[in-house]
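Hey,
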Amino acid sequence: METLPTELQTLVDLIERYPQLHARTLAKVELKNHSYPVISVELGAKGADVPCVLFVGGVHGVEVIGIQVIMALLESILSRLEWDCQLQLLLSKIKLAFVPIVNPIGLQNGTRCNGQRVDLMRNAPIEAETKVTFLVGGQKLSSHLPWYRGRKGVEQETQALIQYVEQLKANASSLISLDAHSGFGMTDHIWFPFAGSNKPIQNIGQIHYLEQLYQASYPHHRHYSFSPQSLIYRTHGDIWDYLATPKNDKPFLPLTLEMGSWSWVKKNPRQMFNFAGFFNPQKQHRQLRALRKHTVLMHFLMDLAASRELESMSSDMLINQHHAALSRWFLR
């Protein structure tokens, strides 16, 4: 039997070790007669009237650092739950959900794409409303070129994530998601929809308020560059664009953490001779630093959800934050 990738095996081991984890197999994908599961795990409060925070990784298999950041958070939470009464109290107020490895075959192969050579983040059933960035925005020319969208509809992994997020949205009072990626720029970004439109997302005011709270709460912490993804580059088939289409009035804030991997390449140019080196730190101390530095943000999202601050914003506050967001990101 073929062994699982290290990160996927670690997730399986955690599920066996901690019975409080509620695990589900969202899909099984095949490679050379071997099956790889797409797994979700949940812990915390139950019921339909609690906020939920979702952490996602491994949409692009080669971006292993994103998987490791999400797994490091999960392992830390599980370890601390045995003694940390404050964390126990927090998890009585919110649900936490994790899909650490959306693309297990990409992880196994060390590729962005899945086993069908499809880029899952260009595969959702949504077309950009404006002209996209050439190739990078998604293409159907050839599976041998990067950013291939696929020609046979929605891939298993894409559909599994979409269905799971829709279920979380339907069974929570609010949902904040953080999807961890790497590979763009020298700095760390927080992107949000839309990637295929220059229109603002419905909850743009709440996202603007979230950033304000984060900056005020951690004024001495290294900050992220917040913006709609469309201001950086535009794409077809973005999963979070598709999920952000309004279906109800519950707050849904889909965020993407894009770790600036170019800084790792700049410090260690030899990484360019290794494909994975374009997306992941190759030196151990840089890897450990990446695992540490985003913990503050992720715990902030958990605390913010538990406070229900975003759910309780008044109409006037929502309007003011909406106008502030439009002025900052769209009225240029």
